Amino acid sequence: MTSKDREIVGNYEVSDQGIMTRREVLMMGAMAAGGLLSAAPAMAAAPGVAAAAATGQAASAIYVAKDFSNLTKGMDGFSASQIEQHLKLYKGYIGKSNEIYDKLKEVDLATANATYSPLRELLMEESFAMNGAIYHEFYFGNLGGKGGEPTGDLKNALEDRWGSTGKFMDYLKAAGKSMRGWVVIGYNTRGSHLSAFGLDSHNMWAPANVVPILVLDVYEHAYMVDYGIERPKYLDAFVKNLDWDVVAKRFDATKHHPSGAASTT
Ligand SMILES: [Fe+2]
Question: For the chain: N or C, fewer Cβ within 10 A?
Fold first, then answer.
């Protein structure tokens, strides 16, 4: 992987292969600050998550980007431009996941070394690329709803862990201000309760026994177009567009199959 392929801006990866360039990142900030990018008008329908044949990916690709284009059609608090830029980033992680998957098939095992080796590099970056894709699918999948309050078993589980749904929302927003990458609410398979964890990078600090059911992206790229550096305003918009039905379905599926990953839809 060369420096031409990849560079780090702030807390996240951009590349010259269709994700975002440094110039684009700076332009996004400048445009947002200048009010050139407006907030979206009306409410969007729930996002479609069918495999995206329109992504231009080879049919043989092991990872295929899901279609979240419905989110660009007018969520209150998220402009189409914001979502489009974010989806571009997501598709970049899908592309890199496929690239690494293919390279792992032919990597030289004889040079394996824990200080540096192609195998070590591929294994580390595989978790970064795959988690970058999967966490984004969880995130986009639980956007496009109408916010409000959870119900049923999910509400009960949130209350058991945080006391009330109101306290949970306060906790979620506070966690969103505390992390640099992700906040994840998940089903803890060791104790059957809900847990929260935070990540500063896609492949750091995720406990292996917590299956995600609600994912919040707090990287600057998730809100810079619409809110500049005003993260609290973005967190309000996220909560307002949270799809509790999707979160409840993940919770229900994970309870019944706790050893497997929840659906990202
Ligand atoms: Fe993101």
Answer: N
CA of 113 to the centre of ligand 1 (A): 32
> Torsion angle of alpha carbons 67, 233, 220, 17, nearest 10°?
30
Distance (angstroms) between ligand 1 centre and the Cα of 222 equals: 5
Contact by Cβ (8 Å): 201, 131: no
- 265 residues of the chain, pLDDT tens digit each: 333 333 332 233 333 333 333 333 344 444 444 333 332 222 222 233 333 344 445 556 899 999 999 999 989 999 999 999 999 999 999 999 999 999 999 999 999 999 999 999 999 999 999 999 999 999 999 999 999 999 999 999 999 999 999 999 999 999 999 999 999 999 999 888 999 999 999 999 899 999 999 999 999 999 999 999 999 999 999 999 999 999 999 999 998 876 655 555 5
Interval between CA 243 and ligand 1 midpoint (Å)? 17
Ligand 1 centroid to Cα of residue 111, in Å, is 34
- Enumerate the CATH 3.55.40.20 domain ranges in the chain, comma separated: 152-256
User: pTM of the prediction?
Assistant: 0.78
Enter the CATH code of domain 152-256. Answer: 3.55.40.20
CA 170 / ligand 1 centre spacing (Å): 22
